[in-house]
Amino acid sequence: MLEHLQELVHELIEHAQQQDQSSAADDHWAGAAPGSTPGERRENGPPWIPGAAFNPGDGVTTMNDPAIQKAWEGMSDRERRAVLREVVKDELEAYGINARGWFPSIETRFFPGWMNGGAISLPTGVIYLSNDLLKSPYGLQIAAHEARHQVQYEMIRRTDPDPWDILTGDDNSDKYEQVERDYGFTREEIEQWRHEFKVWNYEFPPSGDPNNPEYQEQMQRYLDQQVEVNAREREDEFADVYTSEDLEQDMRDAGVR
């Protein structure tokens, strides 16, 4: 009975979170994997969710491991959500981003099936994952992809000039050097991310006929953005190193039996 009540409470929380989508519609979004119709406008959700087609560069995915597949199939959707949140937390905390505790700076929410990939609202620090990602352990990689976008944005924030820097003409070299020492991201990378994340520079994925040359050109421009290249690289790296033992640890951390 207690377990049933807990399940009901969790579903009510999920439903409340999904209702928040309308208030986020004007935020700047970046993300991964809308599926067969990238960039398509959908009713009842934020417009123009960006994304990249599922295309692991080296062909390795978390679905290649039968043990991961079996463990995923043995979980309920509620448990899968908890594990995906745990993956996001792990990815962010590796870069010193608060994702645990009473007041996390980053929140992971789930959207209904009109969006079958992931997205992120950069200013609010909310990562959105589609409920469709619960169907397959490939969703673990998309969680890592979306978390990487938040990491990119955090590195931008950490190297932003403050008012004193502007007054003194400081070029923030010390901030960039600190980030590179700690995490390996170069000034050139961060400045490119900063440029691409400006809403007037970000190349959104196309809509319409995928066979149209203009569609293909716009999709390639979208894919070639360094914020997306870097997120896809992290997605591939994640699949290469993530094991069934890692999944078991994430399940334990998420409270999944």
Short synopsis of the structure:
By secondary structure, the chain is α+β, with helices and mostly antiparallel strands.
Outline the structure in words.
A four-stranded mixed β-sheet has the order 1-3-4-2. The chain contains ten helices and four strands; from the N terminus they run αβααβββααααααα. It has 257 residues and is of the alpha+beta class. 50% of the residues lie in helices and 7% in strands.
Helices and strands in order:
Blueprint: H1 2-19, E1 29-32, H2 66-73, H3 77-93, E2 107-111, E3 118-121, E4 126-130, H4 139-158, H5 163-168, H6 173-183, H7 187-197, H8 213-224, H9 226-241, H10 244-253
Parallel strand pairs: 2-4
Antiparallel strand pairs: 1-3, 3-4
Helix pairs in contact: 3-4, 3-10, 4-7, 4-9
